[in-house]
Amino acid sequence: MSQHIIDFLGVYKEYDGVEVLSNINLYIRQNEFLTLLGPSGCGKTTLLRIIAGFEEPTRGDVCLFGESIKGIPPYKRRVNTVFQKYALFPHLNVFDNIAFGLKLKKMKKSVIEKKVGDMLKLVGLSGYGDRDIAKLSGGQQQRVAIARALVNEPEVLLLDEPLGALDLKFRQEMQLELKRMQKTLGITFVYVTHDQEEALTMSDAIAVIDGGVIQQIGTPEQIYNEPKNSFVADFIGESNIISGNMKRDYLVHFADNDFTCLDRGFNENEPVKVVIRPEDINITKNIADDMITGTVSSTLFMGVHYEIRVHGDNGFEWLVHSTEFFEAGNRVGFTLEPDDIHVMEVSQYDKMRVDGVPEAVK
C-alpha cells in the first residue's frame, strides 16, 4: 500500500468563475501531522472542505488510499472534521455528545461505554461524562469536540482552526495536547491555521499557501530556515529580505559587502533575494571595517529580547533581535555567519515589496 493516504492530483477550484485553488498537487502521508498554513482567503479551508466532501474540485482528482473520492458524500468518507465552532449539542452531556455517532451506528452499550471512556481519558476529561456542555470552559469543549470526532476511528482527522477561540495560554497547551493525541493514535491529522507558531510547533510537514497556490511544502525546519520565496520568508516569522547578487557558489554580494554563504547552484552574478532572520544578526557597538553598519532608530522591549530597528548606511531598514539594549542614535555594526544567510531566487512575490519595506499583499 502507498504511504500516501491523501493525494491531490492537479486540483482546481472555482467559484463563479473565480479560481481559488490552482493546480494543487499535494501528497499527505499516513500518520502525518500536516498543516495547511496561509493568510485568510488563501484557499486552505477550501482544501480541507474538499477532503471532507463538503466541496468538490472543479477539475482534478482527490484520492484516499489511492482511490478517487470525488462524488462520495462526507458520511461515507473515512474522515472526521473539527471546526473552530465546535457544534456540540447543548442538550446532551459530555458522554452523549461523544457517543452520538456510535449510537447512530447502533453499537452495543458496553462497546460505546468503553470507547467513550477511552476517548475521555485520551483528551484528559476522565470523570467529565455527566457534565453539561454549557458548564465547560472553551478548552474543555474543544476537547469534547475532538473526542467526538476521534471516537468514530477515522483514518484522517481534519481540524479547521480549532484553537482560534481559545486564549493564548490554553491555545499553547492544546498545541502540545493535539500533537500528543496524534502520536498516541497514529492517525493522520490535517490542520488548517493562519498562525505560524501553531504550524511550527505541531507539524511534521507544512504546506504554505497563498493565492490558491502551494508556495512551499516541507518540515517546519525547512520552511523556517530555507524559505523558497519572499512570501514564505515574510509569512513564517520575521525576516530581513534584501536584494543581492550571487557572485559564485558560496559567495553572495549584498549591503555593499561580499559574504560567504552555504548556497550554490545559481548563475554567476544572478540577481537574488537574501533572507536573514532578526535573531541571527550579531549586533555590536564595536564597529569594524568589514561590517554592515547603521544607526539605531528604535528599540522595543519584547520580554525575552529587544526588537531593534536599524537604518543601514546603505538605506536598508534592518530588524534585529538582541538580549542587549541599544539606544536610538547608537552607531552599530553587524556580523553574519555563513549559515545565517539564506539565498533565494527572485520570485513573483518580489514585485509586491521593495527592499526593507513590505507592501500590502493585495
Automatic annotation (TrEMBL):
It catalyses: ATP + H2O + polyamine-[polyamine-binding protein]Side 1 = ADP + phosphate + polyamineSide 2 + [polyamine-binding protein]Side 1. GO terms for molecular function: ABC-type putrescine transporter activity; ATP binding; ATP hydrolysis activity. It comes from Christensenella massiliensis. SUPFAM superfamilies: MOP-like, P-loop containing nucleoside triphosphate hydrolases. It comes from the Bacteria. This is Spermidine/putrescine import ATP-binding protein PotA. The lineage of its organism: Bacteria, Bacillati, Bacillota, Clostridia, Christensenellales. SMART domains: AAA. One of its GO terms (cellular component) is ATP-binding cassette (ABC) transporter complex. Part of the ABC transporter complex PotABCD involved in spermidine/putrescine import. Responsible for energy coupling to the transport system. The complex is composed of two ATP-binding proteins (PotA), two transmembrane proteins (PotB and PotC) and a solute-binding protein (PotD). CDD domains: ABC_PotA_N (cd03300). Its EC number is 7.6.2.11. Keywords: ATP-binding, Cell membrane, Membrane, Nucleotide-binding, Translocase, Transport. The keyword Protease does not apply. The keyword Transport applies. Residues 6-236 form the ABC transporter domain. Belongs to the ABC transporter superfamily. Spermidine/putrescine importer (TC 3.A.1.11.1) family.
